[in-house]
Design brief:
By secondary structure, the chain is mostly helical. It has 1 helix and no strands.
């Protein structure tokens, strides 16, 4: 039995790039959502302490 290394095809490469882009997009969406949550919490704190 011989070992043959399989080189990635352009379809495999495109699929890999698409997956990375999708995961990046999802991570950026979570980051934006988390930053919005932090800002909401800060505003709530300021409001609760009477600073605004």
């Amino acid at each position: 039995m011989s070992l043959i290394s399989k080189t990635p095809t352009s379809e495999d490469t495109n699929r890999s790039v698409n997956l990375r882009e999708r995961f990046l997009s999802e991570a950026l969406q979570r980051l934006v959502s988390a930053k919005a949550d932090v800002m909401k919490a800060r505003i709530s704190l300021l409001w609760a302490t009477g600073l605004i």
